[in-house]
Amino acid sequence: MRRSLTIIAFAVVSASPAAALDLPARKAGLWEIKMAFEGRTIPPQTMQQCIDAATDKQMNSIGGNMAQEKCSKQDVQKVGATIVVDSVCQVGAAKITSYGVISGDYNSAYTVKVSSTREGGTAVPGMPADGSTNMTMEAKWLGACKPDQKPGDMIMANGMKVNIVDMQRMQQQMQGAPGGMRPPGMPGAPAQKK
Known about the structure:
The protein is α+β, with helices and mostly antiparallel strands. The chain has one domain. The protein is 23% helix and 40% strand. A 9-stranded antiparallel sheet has the order 3-4-5-6-7-1-2-8-9. The protein starts with a helix and ends in an 18-residue tail after the last helix.
């Protein structure tokens, strides 16, 4: 289950190559995201995202932060009604070259198509030996978030729910903890003194 979540999270980040580059904000509410991969043995993935303006910006900044630190090239152009992103990024020992086209609108539905190749690094399970793959992500606005959802919730196909705000807060706590220790209350954290 953790591996599946990692694959989906990486796919979402990879699917937003222009993330923190002033893309239009998505309409607040519940979005369904479907990802299909060509050239990989990963089955199609579907998830939902409950967003408001702040969490939409926060979700997009994940990919943008990676791009600023790890990408030697990130050309973004508006071509007609589409946004085209051409990038070269270093992910560990691998160089990933991607070309993405984003079309549609951010109020009802949009599509992201990304073609990428990987050079170097260790082989990635489920990916062809030559490191090439194509991914299509289709996003559709479903309406208001459900009563049991809060902005930042990502709901996986298996019903598992994670919240981007909670995940980033936890990451900040772990980075600030002495020696990289886990914050109290997390599995594996030292017991609190009473």
